[in-house]
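Quick one: structure tokens for this chain, please?
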Amino acid sequence: MDKFARRYAAALGVIAVLLLGWWLLARDSQVVAFNALLTSDPVVGSYVYPFRVVEFDGGVAVMSSPRAANVPVLQFVRTAHPELRHRPVDDPAVMTAQEELVSVQARAARIVRDQPDVASVRWQLDERWYAERGVRIER
């Protein structure tokens, strides 16, 4: 390989690395922007669980969630609101906490979904949030 070819290949390599870095930073900056919107919302930002976008790719925003098929809403309510831990499922305060979770989660999804580049929202269980509170999630 002659001197020109080596320089040309090196220049192409540098350009490829710069483009990859720019692409990764642009993706991260969108996640940061989405999370800033969520944090600044008076309802979502002040809720006991911090809804966040954890990944954004191809128009799909992956958001953290404290509930999933294997984690009942009651598990979240009793973890987030220790004062409700020993109350029955049909207690009005427990019911209100469940309804609030559904409402705030829907609002968080709507905030993100309303952004121009977002086609859909996918939920991902926030196992770390439970682990930080000493709750083990069974898979």
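The chain has a mean pLDDT of 88.
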